[in-house]
Write a structure and sequence with these properties.
The protein is built from ten helices and twelve strands. It is of the alpha/beta class and 323 residues long. The chain binds guanosine-5'-diphosphate-beta-L-fucopyranose.
Amino acid sequence: MKILVTGGYGLVGKSLQKVVKACDFDGNFYFLSRVDCDLRNSEQTTNWFKEYNPDVVVHLASRVGGVYDNMNGNYEYLVDNARININVVDSCKVVGVKMLINILSTCIFPDQNVSYPLTSNQLHNGLPHHSNIGYAYSKRILHLASHLLTKIDVDKWCTRVVNLTPTNLYGDYDNYNLKSSHVIPGLIHKTSIAKMTSGELHVYGTGKAMRQFLYVDDLSNVILQFIDLYKDKALNEMEISCIVSPPESSEISIKSLIEKICNIFNFTGKIHYDTSYSDGQYKKTASSDELSKYLPNLTYTSISTGLENTIKFFNDNKEHLRL
Ligand code: GFB
């Protein structure tokens, strides 16, 4: 079985490479990087798909960033990601890919008139939060295009689609850039600087927003288990959508997250909350109920263990990371 992974060298891609190697997974993987192919270019994308002719595509490639980078670039997030997503889905159609695994995000769900914990069937029931409306609609386009792909040529063949929707991801090969990063890598980088310089730790917002954090290796495990289910012909539906989330009880405030990171660094200096910055979405509470139907015995890495692993990796490798 040939498995093409777009975004093969990003946060999830590098984790998937590690997990595939660690469990000696039976599959012929090709991890595509942006150096190989600009997925915003439809001809390049289709040529790469024809070259490799995959049975399964794990679509990880995306322009991603924290809430502030999204707020400052919603247009670019929409256009770049919509191009990537349409090109990937259309190339799956051209070469007859048997299964497409998409990675969505809980931040693309409606921010109003939604019931918690989030369920996949609420995705299109309202506007996403304004802070990342561009990214959100590019992922909703991916979701819709993939849905329509499952309906094409039903008699001859059609592509099975699995949409996995993680909560906020974090882990080793994240983007730690202070301007564009998500909250965990941003705070790890900032706390490391504050510790080294005995300065203040400047954090954004009020700290009241609530988040659930998913350690990236847990998502990689879920991806591989769905490929196994497919290989074992244990997937009946042509379209499956599952939120991938640690339990609702794992939801913590940003303030509590900051305290955990400071404890691991043993940073005891002053913490300054700059409330001129938005909190972004207040909450996007999710659960793993949908997933437990397919993977009933899944366990999740605790936030303490995940943070300890990630901070150790950051301290040991910072000169090679995206700072
Ligand atoms: O990970 P994050 O940037 O994105 O988290 P979202 C933002 C939350 O962390 C806000 C607080 O409540 C911020 O006020 N925060 C505190 C910080 N200090 C910092 C900091 O130094 N950097 C950052 N980035 N935040 C994103 C979406 O929303 O979720 C993306 O915008 C993506 O599209 C991602 O889908 C998963 O969780 O708010």
